[in-house]
């Protein structure tokens, strides 16, 4: 099967030298790609430039992305070539910087435009603009493909994390959702459109379940 796996973080620039990102290392997505390759699948790995995991990357094709917009562009290009399954494990930044403002001595806020914003401006206000969601677009690009999304939840408990994953499944027309994070607890939850959620105790169990899903007719 031809598979696309996304891994690692996107980033969003504040100016020409500073950026907003997250703590994703890219390890889970890279290891998932390796697992699929070892079982005979052809894999394209899209991994963030800032991924810190240095383990092996055995995908037949590897491409690097930077911002959310860059990841979207590369995913769309790969999808145009056709793929059987896409496993979207990347940690896409939820926000990008909007306008940055400084306050004058008179109390008025004015917009700063600079390649490197100086600390001499003192206290600043930076807008945080939501980035476009990629997962909801995938079904339109790949009507017949198998689509797996991820939901990393921090607040609440396991029931809250599973509810958020279920909402994602419906909203994004995905086939499966992997849920993890502090809210879920140890291991991973795996939700489909039907049936009860499955609990996978570790990464290898998760990878095996995902490979079985990809291979199934």
Low-confidence stretches: none
CATH superfamily of the largest domain: CoaB-like
| Total individual domains | 2
Structural class computed from helices and strand pairing: alpha/beta
Task: Count the beta strands.
Answer: 13
The CATH architecture of the largest domain can be named as 3-Layer(aba) Sandwich
Biggest sheet: strand arrangement: 5-4-1-6-10-11-12-13
Number of alpha- plus pi-helical segments: 5
Can you give me a brief rundown of this structure?
The protein is an alpha/beta fold. It has 5 helices and 13 strands. Helices cover 28% and strands 30% of the residues.
Tell me about this structure.
The chain folds into two domains: 2-94 and 132-215, Rossmann fold (3-Layer(aba) Sandwich), CATH 3.40.50; 96-129, no CATH class. It is built from five helices and 13 strands. The chain has helices at 27-38, 68-80, 135-141, 158-172, 203-215, and strands at residues 2-7, 12-13, 19-20, 42-48, 61-65, 85-88, 95-103, 109-112, 124-130, 146-152, 176-180, 188-192, 198-200. It is globular. It starts with a strand and ends with a helix.
